[in-house]
Amino acid sequence: MNRSNQSRRSILPGLAVLGLLAGLCVASPAFAWLVNPVTPVAHEVRGLFYKAVAVTSFFFLLAELLLLVAVLRFRAKPGVPAATFHENVRLEIVWTAIPALAMVILSGPAFTTLKSMETVPQSDLTVEVVGHQWFWEYRYPKYGVIFANEPLVIPVGKIVAVDVTSIDVVHSWFVADFGVKMDANPGRINHTWFQVEKPGVYGGQCAELCGVLHGQMLITVNAVSPEEFERWIEQKKKGA
Amino acid sequence: MEAGTLAGSQPIAHGHRAAKPRTGILKYLLTTDHKLIGVMYLWLSFTFFAIGGIFALLIRSQLAAPGLHVLPPEVYNQIMSMHGTFMIFFFTIPIMAGLSNYVVPIQIGARDMAFPRVNAVSFWLLVPAGLLMLTSLLLHGGSAAAGWTSYPPLTDRQYSPGPGVDLWILGLHLAGASSILGGINFVVTIFNLRAPGMTMFKMPMFCWAVLITQSIILVATPVLAGALTMLLTDRMFGTSFFHPAAGGDPVLWQHLFWFYSHPAVYIMVLPGMGMISQVLPAFSDKRLFGYKGMVLATAGIGVIGFMVWGHHMFSTGMSPGLRRFFSFASMVIAVPTGIKIWSWLATIWGGSIRFRTPMLYGVGFISLFIIGGITGVWLALVPFDVQVHDTYFVVAHLHYVLFGGSLMSIFAGFYYWFPKISGRMYNEAWGKVHFWLVFIGMNLTFMPMHIMGMLGMPRRIYTYKPEYAIWNHISSAGAAILGVAMLIFAINVLLSLWRGRRAPEDPWDHAEHNKTLEWTTSSPPPAENFARIPIIR
Known about the structure:
The complex is a heterodimer.
Chain A: H1 2-27, H2 32-35, H3 40-73, H4 89-118, E1 125-132, E2 135-140, E3 145-148, E4 152-155, E5 160-166, E6 171-175, E7 180-184, E8 190-194, E9 200-205, E10 218-224, H5 226-239
Parallel strand pairs in A: 1-5, 4-10
Antiparallel strand pairs in A: 1-2, 2-3, 5-8, 6-7, 9-10
Helix pairs in contact in A: 3-4
Chain B: H1 2-7, H2 24-29, H3 34-62, H4 73-107, H5 116-136, H6 164-192, H7 205-236, H8 250-284, H9 291-304, H10 320-332, H11 334-348, H12 357-380, H13 382-388, H14 392-422, H15 428-455, H16 469-499
């Protein structure tokens, strides 16, 4: 009785610390894209991430806990011989079947999210993204606007289809808050899409090593209201 | 055939035995003894480890704060590429081969490897291979600088005109040839040179792990050799395997490269798992739990390991069907890996655990490898992978697998067999200090990288946006701790070799059921290992 009380008392602060750490992790700016996704896909990716954490943390905590208990409890003591068991088919079937089942369950939301990532809806605007060593070229074929080395400007709330390619080596167009990363392969055109929910300035950068200045191949996306976008594109057209 | 004569119980039937034993440098240069070759592998791999480690410290110095100028960008890319290349091809793979070389023939009760001269060739190929890599750093244009993955077109002549990439290709060709020859040697040795009565399912788990690893090498490494040759002819002779303008496709390289390089992860991890399966029972005085399940799980990892390479390419624009296949296969591989984790936990459960340095590394291995395994499952989920692919999250994941997994197991195995190999004990207290510094430093270095990656910091960049600064400060501090830890390790090993206490036959007092054959001969074992080939009941 006494003993179990004692052990319960010693476990409680440990749990509290763990909970606090978990809370800090989720609340901290570290998880920015998890807290502030700005596209439907990014929302879904966050949801998928939470589900993955939920399913896998069961196995993670169980395994680490068993390890910790074993290390604390089974330290060699004089006169206490080691146990002799070394197989248990039923146990082995259980620890094969349950994780396998968990993987099947987890693949459900993963494939659903994948579907929405891959299915480009009827788009309001198409932007062509071309990677160069070491800058991005953006084209708006509908408006005949082409420029490079400037922020991409897109209208909030509209569905933007993105065609990605490269003129030289492999690059990758990556904006974390959008849940978008697409390789820019020379000789191929890849398709992706996003629909930004909030106006703002979003940062990203090239995610595939592309040479000396790979680290400075930044991306800036200005998400503006549709009206402001129209004004901007008109001005761009005149400028060109 | 030979197997019969070697496995016979007559005392000694080898040609070299009658000759006077060589001394001095010739003893090493001309040897075909698997133990001497194993020792040379260890020296060479640890030398390359030191080089790769210095590269790592340079990387972490450059990234200690945003906007530093420790290394110019072009040099940073070379150092980063060479760090990966050295740690994978010139440290982890060879040191596994080295420990396997030393231990496997003794554990199966053989006098040597099946092809002792080929064994020497395997080792000596690595010396020029490493030298080619190192000298490329000094040449005009520097070494290869496109990461250890060397994706074309960046590695085409147009974008990498210097000789660095050519030397990288040739160096890997030599290292690959060394691996392939070793693979043939190990597989033949394990199938044919087992002592009488040593049936396959009586073999120690480590021998199974080596057999499966070397079989993976035999299937995977020739594919790398083919891809390297294609890249070389693209650069040198105007072919267009990977040139889009002439009908080639750079993504083809990624498929071929990862067809080798994902199984290569298992080449680097499975032998370590074999070592862990020796160390945990030895220091908890229990039998390995679920031996046959472990063998099956290892074989399963070996087979499924060939069906998951596409998870390195989810953002290349791969077809939806393939994405789903590779995604699910990558999740499935967590199951046999899980079987191993649970079996190890059941192995130490109820044991009588002695926390010597190898055991600390064994326990450290489990605790860290679980983390790498869990993030591996997350990365198998395509949408999450796309989010963090080519960011520091992947760098964190791969280091929990290759540092937390491979390196921790290498240290476990190295401390475990050090008395057997050198005939001397290492200093236990400093061994433990080494462990704790590595364990703390490792987590400080790599845990924050998960967060950097989720924030969107790409890998392989020479400097970064200020918002990632705090996590990089922590990571670089951890790397400094690791540097100190490895220095302590080196000093401990050298001093112990010089004046360590003499090691008895079995310094770990194995329980009878855990006593594999290497603990029944002297430390170090005599030439040809056994006065008489043991007969296993």
